[in-house]
Design a protein that fits this description.
With 698 residues, the protein is of the alpha/beta class. The protein folds into 5 domains: 2-206, 3-Layer(aba) Sandwich (Rossmann fold), CATH 3.40.50.300; 214-346, Rossmann fold (3-Layer(aba) Sandwich); 350-428, no CATH class; 479-587, Winged helix-like DNA-binding domain superfamily/Winged helix DNA-binding domain (Arc Repressor Mutant, subunit A), CATH 1.10.10; 623-697, DNA polymerase, domain 1 (Orthogonal Bundle), CATH 1.10.150. 45% of the residues lie in helices and 11% in strands. It has a 7-stranded parallel sheet, with helices on both faces. Helix 5 (102-113) links the parallel strand 3 and strand 4 (119-122). Helix 2 packs parallel to helix 3 (54-64), helix 20 packs across helix 21 (504-512) and helix 25 (626-645) crosses helix 26. The protein is globular. The termini are far apart. The structure holds zinc ion. Residues 449-451, 466-467, 470, 472-473 line the site of zinc ion. Zinc ion binds at residues 449-451, 466-467, 470, 472-473.
């Protein structure tokens, strides 16, 4: 499915409607093309971020020619908002949803029947009722629009079962031209939309995801250093800021911490009273608050143009979510920053959310059987009934069974003949959730242009590979570690062997010789000459090697949530030729992980011989002897004074891990110092003398 140009221009009637009804004198390029394509009767798939005027793309065709446009929308709040905006511009529009009173419902249906409406919004649940099918046939729908179309795909992040009926709903309407719009669809989700709705050669437009006015940055820091990092970030970028936290507790604590240092901040999340939320929102909009610290609950329907910074304290669950939330920055088109704070612990937080949402099949079965035997259920009692399982897992299973209507609100347990839920579907959704999380991880750890990465993810064509508004393109690389040529060649051979079938994570596993279920099921994979070639490397550094090969054009990454790697012509010739293959990766690995996996096969050590100093060091500090602990404390005091004097977070001087290694190895020269993890040339030049002097004295 590709973007197709040359669709002509919108009709005069459409342009007149834009000007006279909505006061819009110039359509944006994407809008104009989508309107023009819809007016020729073509199916349209329009993907553009929120706030870029997607609605106009179907409002104008709806007004420019006669007939009723039916719009499917997933949320009553969205429908109401749209209908109010249309009516405010004098357009006859209405919505059908469960919150209408009987009188309103009758009136709306009557107006639709006598042709008095131009646009009718409906909730997807409507299509379940047979009577609604009869009504559709009667109404003669001229155009069928699906808003938030990504909800149709289980690969999308808001999958809605009701959306699966829309394909047959389109037929029930006599197959009018269909327009599908969404703010977040990867190529894979777009394929799902197209096939589920039965789109015919749709005019597909993906636009607006690259916003050069936004500076994209990722700071890697420990979880415990994040508060200091947020304060630092706020001191660097003046103006209004939004901070997103994954958990309610973190929101409250962060807002409190900011107030303590004199920043006008408030928390915003679902556990606050409605009035407290409204007050926070009003004060933020009115300028009395500089910062709102929110869970993802904040943002629906908020349109503040001059947010100068959006900081993610935690990992969002997908790159779509990240793009949507971060995209609230700089709506006025002026420069703004989108900062993601990343620590290895974030991944497990998100994994916990996924495991809670998708408990294992056996757990669900066991809990269901236990509750069935007991005859009644309640949340607290359930955990006691199945003491062999962790409380959190039992509660996850209970919530799932409750949501599936197996556990009834009165405490009854329904007896079923089949399985309590569709486990295959659940497994698919869980897999998709993990795939989205991996993509988010890849964004955080990437050393490629972040704008280009986002464009690749959404499949927006024509993005530059380098920019002047992301940290990876702006900041000169830190200390670099040479990659042994044998390691680079092993990575190329591995990709060549599985060309286009495996992603970076799996290739990295093979190179490290990880004993995984995948490799156990395929004993032959262990015989491949590159299996374990990078044994002893950690996962992140191995993926850095792969990312570097992508960056250098020897490997290519596919689109979407599960991008696979392929060998390019340059990669093939590098494998064939005997030319030198000199690669480097960042020396600092920000997420230390003890080397747990056993590795097999031939190993390639880093060029200096042996693993980098202190790799896999125990971060608890128990590995330091008495002298080491003394040196560590001295280093810490020195770091604290320096950080205070320079008014920046301590970890930006050296993180704890580096400090421990300095304490353990007590380097005596700059050359020794440079072998310590986390010390690059810049830091060695800046702090080297002070550190060496201090260590001599200790
Ligand atoms: Zn860039």
């Amino acid at each position: 499915m590709s973007q197709r140009g040359a669709v002509g221009a919108p009709s005069r009637a459409a342009l007149a409607a834009a000007r006279d009804v909505f006061g819009v004198t110039a359509l944006r390029p994407g809008q104009a093309e989508a309107v023009a394509a819809a007016e020729t009767g073509r199916d349209v798939l329009f993907v553009a971020p929120t706030g870029t005027g997607k609605s106009l793309a179907y409002w104008l065709p709806a007004l420019a020619s006669p007939g009723l446009t039916l719009v499917v929308s997933p949320l009553i709040a969205l429908m109401t908002d749209q209908v109010n905006r249309l009516r405010g511009s004098g357009v006859a529009a209405a919505a059908l949803h469960s919150q209408l009173g009987p009188g309103e419902l009758r009136e709306t249906l009557a107006a639709a029947r006598r042709g008095a409406l131009r646009l009718l919004y409906v909730a997807p649940e409507r299509f379940a009722a047979a009577s609604f099918g009869d009504l559709l046939a009667e109404l003669r729908i001229a155009r069928f629009v699906v808003d938030e179309a990504h909800c149709i795909s289980s690969w999308g992040h808001d999958f809605r079962q009701d959306y699966r009926r829309l394909g047959s709903a389109v037929s029930a309407c006599g197959r009018p031209p269909v327009t599908a719009v969404t703010a977040t669809a990867t190529p894979r989700v777009r394929e799902d939309i197209s096939s589920s709705l039965g789109l015919r050669d749709p005019f597909t437009l993906v636009t607006g995801f690259v916003r050069p006015e936004l500076t994209l940055a990722v700071w890697r820091c420990r979880r415990g250093d994040k508060r200091a990092a947020v304060i630092q970030a706020l001191s660097e970028v003046p103006g209004r800021a939004l901070i997103y936290c994954g958990r309610v507790r973190d929101c409250d604590e962060m807002a409190e911490a900011l107030r303590a240092v004199g920043v006008a901040a408030a928390a915003y999340h679902a556990q606050l009273e409605g009035t407290a939320r409204a007050r926070a929102q009003a004060e933020f909009t009115g300028g009395r608050l500089r910062v709102v610290v929110a869970t993802s609950a904040f943002g629906m329907g908020i349109d503040i143009a001059d947010i100068r910074q959006v900081i993610h304290h935690d990992f969002p669950r997908s790159l779509e979510d990240y793009h949507q939330a971060a995209g609230r920055a700089g709506r006025d088109g002026l420069p703004a920053r989108c900062l993601l704070l990343y620590s290895a612990a974030d991944r497990s937080l998100q994994e916990g959310f996924i495991e809670d949402a998708y408990p294992e099949r056996e757990t669900v079965r066991e809990v269901y059987r236990a509750l069935l035997r007991a005859g009644r259920w309640d949340l607290d009692g359930a955990a006691d009934l199945v003491p062999s399982l962790a409380r959190r897992d039992v509660e996850a299973a209970v919530r799932l069974l409750e949501g599936a209507g197996v556990l009834l609100p009165g405490g009854e347990v329904r007896q079923l003949n089949g399985p309590p839920v569709d486990f295959e579907e659940r497994a698919r959704l869980k897999q998709a959730a993990y795939a989205r999380l991996h993509q988010m991880m890849a964004y955080a750890t990437s050393r490629e242009c972040r704008h280009a990465r986002i464009a690749d993810y959404f499949g927006e064509p024509g993005a530059a590979r380098r920019c002047s508004s992301c940290d990876n393109c702006l900041t000169p690389a830190g200390a670099e570690l040479p990659v042994p040529e044998a390691a680079a060649r092993a990575a190329l051979r591995a990709v060549a062997r599985f060309d286009g079938h495996l992603g970076a994570a799996r290739i990295a596993e093979l190179l490290r010789g990880v004993d995984s279920p995948w490799s156990r099921e395929r004993p032959w994979a262990r015989e491949l000459d590159f299996f374990g070639a990078l044994g002893g490397w950690d996962g992140e550094r191995t993926r850095d090697v792969i990312a570097e090969l992508v960056e250098r054009g020897m490997l290519q990454r596919g689109h979407g949530e599960r991008p696979t790697l392929t060998l390019t012509a340059a990669g093939r010739s590098a494998l064939r030729d005997d030319r030198e293959l000199a690669l480097t990766i960042a020396a600092a690995t920000p997420t230390p992980r003890p080397a747990r996996q056993r590795s097999a096969g031939r190993r390639v050590g880093p060029r200096s011989g042996g693993a980098p100093v202190g790799d896999g060091a125990d971060p608890s500090g128990d590995d330091l002897d008495a002298g080491g602990r003394l040196r560590f404390e001295r280093l810490r005091r020195w770091r604290l004074e320096l950080a205070r004097a320079e008014a920046r977070p301590a970890f930006t001087v050296f993180d704890d891990r580096t400090l421990r290694q300095l304490a353990a190895h007590a380097p005596r020269s700059v050359a020794d110092l440079l072998r310590v993890h986390g010390v690059g040339p810049v830091k060695a030049a800046r702090y080297g003398d002070a550190v060496i002097r201090l260590l001599r004295e200790a």
